[in-house]
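Private note to self, pasted from the team thread so I don't lose it. Backbone tokens:
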């Protein structure tokens, strides 16, 4: 490795580090979205099984719940993206959220695969740089 190649390798290692940090943040956001969607899906599925007049505990976030009574024809208002929400039957809402969970799971899988590939490339480049430093010290 000549000096220019070594500088390029070090710059590439820094770029890998920055990209891995960004991907880690994306992964954390997707994981939070997954957990939030899963909670909503479970809550709506429970509500779907409740009878009119039943009192249920409904999660409102931050590990907090409120008591609510089930009505005769419960509906759900579901966010469909870009701060837009629509009213759906509970069955449709649960199916929609299941579909979202599948999409989030797929995105997490792809993101993790990308992170693993990038990490492997960074490790290989790091080994090459370390070997070059050792060669130059001899």
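Design output:
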């Amino acid at each position: 490795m000549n000096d220019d190649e070594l500088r390029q390798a070090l710059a590439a290692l820094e770029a890998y580090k920055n990209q891995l940090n960004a991907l880690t943040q994306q992964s954390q956001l997707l994981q939070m979205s997954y957990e939030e969607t899963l909670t909503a899906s479970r809550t709506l599925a429970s509500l779907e099984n409740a009878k009119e007049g039943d009192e249920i505990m409904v999660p409102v976030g931050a590990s907090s719940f409120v008591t609510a009574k089930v009505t005769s024809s419960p509906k759900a208002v579901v966010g469909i993206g870009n701060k837009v929400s629509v009213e759906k039957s509970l069955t449709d809402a649960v199916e929609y959220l299941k579909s979202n969970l599948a999409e989030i799971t797929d995105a997490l899988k792809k993101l993790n695969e990308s992170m693993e590939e990038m990490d492997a490339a960074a490790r290989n480049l790091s080994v090459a740089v370390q070997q070059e430093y050792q060669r130059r010290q001899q």
